[in-house]
Amino acid sequence: MRIADTIHQMTGDVPVEFVAYDGSRAGAPDADVQVDIRSPLALSHIAASPNTLGLVRAYVTGALEIVGDMYTALAALPALKLSAIPTDARVKLVAKLAGARLWWPTRPPREERRLRGGRHSMRRDAQAISHHYDVSNTFYEWVLGPSMAYTCAVYPNENATLEEAQYEKFDLVARKLALEPGMRLLDVGCGWGSMVIHAAKHYGVRALGVTLSANQAEWAQKRIAQEGLSDVAEVRHLDYRAVQETDFDAISSIGLTEHIGDANLASYFQLLYSKLRIGGRLLNHCITRPNNLEEARTQSFINRYVFPDGELLGPGRIISQMHDTGFEVRHEENLREHYARTLAGWCRNLDSHWEEAVAEVGPHTARVWRLYMAGSRLGFDRNMIQLHQVLGVKLDAQGRSFMDLRPTW
Asked: How far apart are CA 277 and CA 246, in angstroms?
């Protein structure tokens, strides 16, 4: 049985051409996407995990190549299904795949490093964040662009560029927080300091950002100095739980909650609540599941290769916990279509720097990123994941919020 025909049967009638190392071809010959099975190692991984994970492992190792746009490929390819193959063909396939498993290793390719310590402890969180963010600042500059913003942008119109949308995102957060000159802002999980810089530069606030990534903190401090903002802006290599200052006028959390974990959600909001003055606002911006019915942890590929210990919660879970902590939630919105657009921009950036990226971080990491960003874009497009901004305020003892009757942003 020819290999390309076998894989084609497993995927069904999809607009993809399959090419294999045995010279076989199957599927749509004029398709925009081609799946190239380059070695028996691809069959080995598919045999060990006859589902999406097996296909992922084959791609990450380079035993399988996707020729064409990765998003288009993922949108076209379903999970591999042995049940879709007729019984007689399945017997031949099992024999072929069994041989592949015998002669080729089926151990997963290198994934995340082994994390030590209790789940979501300070020590283990530092390792998990370092795994993803301490890759290469140069690599991130290529992928993210000048804004160095690794979170969902907000597109003010259909024709806005990625940079314009990232500016709008930070400005929207600043407006929701009602920032004014002289205020004090804490940005937890601040990344490369983009929100810190935006708030200090455009709103005249004194901004402190904290991140568990040493690479991010170093890059951010240099950028702050270049912008001439060192007297009003600072980024520390520090866990948000170790911040000593209090009485902030506002707190922004942009892309941190995904790393907190469901078990720590209450203590997370309690700590942020304790850091705010009366009337202070919290803007929580994070990826969520579309509901509260599933387990909190992310899908296997993302958790294994991209965000170790990452957990996605439903928006209702987050809003309820904010209320239970003492915040009054005053506004909420879902920006999932914006994140799909953001990821499309990052994917284009990576493709335009592909050879440089492979040389900088290695083919394994570059392939993981190409796959993960295209897959995430598909997830937002199909409402498998969402992006929610939730605005809360710390009331005084009489229940006053000190907010305008209608939103001003």
From this structure: 8
pTM comes to 0.89
Q: Is the dihedral of CA 340, 341, 342, 348 positive or negative?
A: positive
All structural domains of the chain, each given as residue ranges with its CATH number in brackets, are 3-103 (3.30.1050), 122-394 (3.40.50.150)
Tell me phi and psi for residue 168, to 5 degrees.
-65, -35
The helix/strand/coil state of 308 is coil
Q: Mean pLDDT in each 10-residue stretch from start to end of the chain (409 residues)?
A: 80 87 91 91 76 80 92 80 55 58 54 58 58 74 96 97 98 98 98 98 98 93 98 97 98 95 95 98 97 70 72 95 98 98 98 96 90 94 96 98 95
Handedness of CA 312, 315, 316, 319 (dihedral sign): positive
Q: How many CA atoms lie within 13 A of 389 on its CB side?
A: 24
Question: Chain centroid to CA 137: how far?
Answer: 17
Measured between its terminal Cα atoms, the distance across the chain in Å is 63
Count Cβ atoms within 10 A of the Cβ of residue 237 and give its class: 0-12 exposed, 13-18 middle, 19 or more buried: middle
Query: DSSP code of 385?
Result: S
Torsion from C-alpha of 107, 111, 115, 118, nearest 10 degrees? -80
**Of 32, 46, 42, which Cα lies nearest the Cα of 79?**
46
